[in-house]
Specification:
By secondary structure, the chain is α/β, with parallel strands linked by helices. The chain contains 12 helices and 12 strands. It has helices at about 15-20, 25-30, 40-50, 60-65, 90-105, 120-125, 145-150, 175-190, 205-220, 235-245, 260-270, 305-320, and strands spanning about 70-75, 110-115, 135, 155-160, 170-175, 195, 225, 255, 280-285, 300, 330, 335. The strands form 2 sheets. It has a 6-stranded parallel sheet with strand order 2-1-3-4-5-11. Helix 1 (about 15-20) packs across helix 2 (about 25-30), helix 2 packs across helix 3 (about 40-50) and helix 8 (about 175-190) runs parallel beside helix 9.
């Protein structure tokens, strides 16, 4: 019998690999995990044997031992705007930054778009046993549910607004201040009758409307005209067109609740022969990458999504480690471009 006729032992488990290497299963486990407790020569020999025999550790067993799943849930609740999709430019931007931050830490991402029809939708997610932590993108109209779950489930961080005394950890921009900056700029340009184009059913957008109102009241001007506009792209353009056809002439400046609404408004104005910004200055809110790419380029309020995503992930990992980290409220910045 030649050497080539000798059957190669099959390596299916850590015990098989340990017998082949002549070490304990604990040593194999530590070596495959790259632990420095195993000397370099032994660790490299075990890793080489694992590669040679195509051995992959049983991830499920490892997760059972460590009580970790290696997955973070990223959840988008859409109670207020059920027709909005994940393809929305804001969601795509922040999801990309969160995915980068999570994968850099060796975690998988489990993405869910939720229409919260059941009262216990969030409990089902956090109690699934499939996740080490949860990131919520937006509070929607689900503040009561988020607060209820946050009082007993700590590894959860939410993108959104912060109010004094709330239980859940939120990361976001000072929406009220940001909208006030936009309003003050429009007023400084000579606007005297502002319109807020957006809905006021979610905490973040309510704060933006209030910030614009702060600016008009400080200047002794009438409160802004609120033109209810959904964030769902399939009805947004029609609503904006309807607002302009009915109310154009009753306002001389638009502060939009989002960049996407602002960009659609600019297009609708130009289609109606209203030049931007000469006849109607327009501001957005978010500073998405598109804001600098459209023509005319969009004046907007920046909420730093790169920094915000990093704050969310850092806060989540701290909470997973047992720390009770507080909310983070970032400072907005008015970005002046061509539309105002």
């Amino acid at each position: 019998m030649t050497d080539s006729d000798i059957p190669v032992p099959r390596v299916r488990t850590i015990a098989d690999l340990a017998r082949l290497a002549g070490v304990s299963t604990g040593t194999v486990s530590r070596a495959l995990a790259g632990k420095s407790l195993v000397n370099t020569e032994t660790r490299e020999r075990i890793q080489a044997l694992a590669t040679e025999h195509g051995f992959r550790p049983n991830q499920m067993a490892s997760r059972l031992r460590t009580q970790r799943t290696g997955a973070i849930g990223v959840v988008v609740p859409l109670g207020h705007e059920r027709r909005q999709h994940l393809s929305d430019p804001f969601f795509m931007a922040i999801l990309g930054h969160l995915a980068d931050a999570l994968t850099e830490q060796g975690y998988d991402l489990m993405l869910s778009r939720i229409i919260p029809d059941a009262e216990d939708w969030l409990e089902r997610i956090v109690e699934s046993g499939m996740l080490d932590g949860v990131l919520l993108i937006g509070q929607s109209d689900q503040l009561e549910t988020i607060e209820r779950v946050a009082r007993r489930y700590r590894p959860m961080v939410v993108w959104g607004a912060h109010r004094e005394g709330q239980a859940h950890c939120a990361v976001g921009v000072d929406n009220r201040l940001g909208a006030r900056l936009a309003g003050e700029h429009l007023i400084a340009r000579g606007c005297r009758k502002l319109a807020f184009m957006g809905e006021i059913r979610t905490l973040e957008l309510v704060e933006r409307f209030h910030g614009l109102t702060d600016a008009t009241r400080a200047a002794g001007l009438p409160d802004p005209l609120q033109l209810d506009t959904h964030l769902a792209s399939d009805i947004m353009a029609e609503e904006i067109g309807g607002h302009l056809d009915r109310a154009l002439g009753s306002f001389d400046g638009i502060a939009a609740a989002s960049d996407v609404i602002a960009m659609r408004a600019v297009r609708a104005l130009i289609e109606r022969g209203v030049s931007v910004p000469d006849m109607m200055p327009v501001t957005g809110f978010d500073d998405l990458p598109l804001a600098e790419q459209v023509a005319p380029r969009l004046t907007t309020v920046r909420q730093d999504l790169v920094l915000g995503a990093r704050h969310m992930v850092d806060a989540l990992f701290a909470r997973m480690a047992g720390e009770d980290v507080p909310s983070v409220q970032m400072v907005p910045e008015l970005i002046l471009r061509e539309t105002a």
